[in-house]
Amino acid sequence: MEPTTIAIDLSKRVFQIHYVEPETGAIHSKALKRAQLVPFFANRPASRVVMEACGSAHHWARVLARLGHDVRLIAAQFVRPFVKSNKNDAADAAAIWEAAQRPGMRFVAVKTEGQQAMLAMHRIRQQLVRIRVMQVNQLRGLLYEFGVVLPQGRRASIEAAKAALASLADELPAMLADSLQDQLSRLRGLDEQIARIEQRILDWRRNDDACKRISEIPGVGVLTATAAVSVIGQATTFRSGREFAAYLGLVPRQNSSGGKIKLGGISKRGDVYLRTLLIHGARSVIVSSRHLPERLRQMLSRRPTNVVAVALANKMARTIWALLAYGRTYQAAPAQ
């Protein structure tokens, strides 16, 4: 007999439950407080639990999986078409239950604590890098008002700012000079924090077999490898490498009708961070590699560099999926 499918609309304090009894067809919709959720599922037989892949979904998926339930996560975009009438918690839970009944529904892999922790490290680093860029840009703009033009590049700008503050010590008001020195101190602190996080990411990569295997792919560095393993979760969740590339938004957007296929630019769906890392890695391969494959050289001769970079990023995503799904190691194509 098929297990009961129970849908949960997640929240911080009140969770909405929706399920249908298989024997009687009775529809149950009830609200549970946070402290009631685990006891409710602990006292029920093994069921199929479905939730939207939103905040705290992976945490609750791990908790309920330890209780013996089969937990599935559905992307919010696949649930939205099934919301009837006005939006509320009960309607959302019913929509999640309805979406889970579709035979072709695609589910999101549940991430482990390690994978989610690595993603958190990437998010912290990304925010610190943004703050550092903002600090340097502000320093550049403030000194420009006093006739100082800083060179391009973060490190060169900081060194030039130090020299400019030393030379303008007698001209700048003391309060501004002290504040700019504090700005430089904050930049040094940000550099140290980012370096510590990158070292932790590197240590995790060294101890993870999957990361080491996909790091052999040209253009896949420490950040891309650790982010890819953490984002993909279980590679078998995707049916093919193309489906993984489509999940990252690296395939053309279609607008086809009447048998006429119309392809546009890439869809840019899915994880923006990982897609950006893959495209930057592809650009580095194009710029730094002296012995590019003949097919890639031909493409560069007739298409813009950015188009070729996206195509190479697509291939890198497919290769990552193949190595993770089949447990293989990377083998470079023979030189032509």
From TrEMBL:
InterPro entries linked to this entry: Transp_IS110-like_N, Transpos_IS110, Transposase_20
Pfam families with a match to the protein in the record: DEDD_Tnp_IS110, Transposase_20
Keyword Ion transport: no
GO BP field: DNA transposition
Coiled coil: 180-207
Keywords, sorted A to Z: Coiled coil, Plasmid
Annotated GO MF terms: DNA binding; transposase activity
Domain of life: Bacteria
All residue ranges annotated as the Transposase IS116/IS110/IS902 C-terminal domain in the record: 211-289
Domain Transposase IS110-like N-terminal: 8-145
Name used for this protein in its record: Transposase IS116/IS110/IS902 family protein
Upper lineage: Bacteria, Pseudomonadati, Pseudomonadota, Betaproteobacteria, Burkholderiales
